[in-house]
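Incident log, structure service

09:12 report received: a user says their structure output differs between two submissions of the same chain.
09:20 pulled the input from the user's history:
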Amino acid sequence: MTQRKLTPRGRERRNQVMLRAAELFAEKGYHPTSVSDIVTSLGVGKGVFYWYFENKEELFAEILRGAHTDLRRRQRVAIGDEPDPLRRIEAGIRETMRWFHEHRDSFSLLLFAATDERFAPVLRRNQEVAIDDTVRHLKDAIVAGQIPDQDPQTLARAVIGVLEKLAHSCLIERDEPLDATTDAAVAFCLHGLTGPR
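09:34 re-ran on a clean worker, output below:
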């Protein structure tokens, strides 16, 4: 669908539709939630929905992209202009775990999306971007001699995989304390990266 040029009010309305839809998808599930459910809960007509989105699938894909964009923004802020690559990696890990903890609904939507082939391209693209972001810091750490010279793509996949698994099993399923889970993630990832040479 061609992206419309939106006014500030239009962007706000579009965001309202996305936020409410994300809540309903997390609460009821993707398939049971209809466009009618979304617009009725907002007190608007279907025309509002179709002004911004071609269909429910496009809306869900936009929610996935928006969640990933928000996570990246938070990571960039947390990392700031830190010169030390390992400290940047740690800051990114800590902010990622905090984001997962604060956005449990978004995490459940990501888990669902991984089971539906329609959303595979969006998830793949989000994953590629996350890997590229992490690789940048890993390459800097390799050049600085802080971690052994290894394939940074493989290391990035390992770090991201650990964070996703810990967030799912510890924060979402078992509701374990954020700080303890984050400290474990940092210790495991950083010691795994800098361990015996």
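09:41 both user submissions now match this output. Likely a transient worker issue. Closing.
09:42 reviewer note: The chain has a mean pLDDT of 94. The two ends are 51 Å apart (CA to CA).
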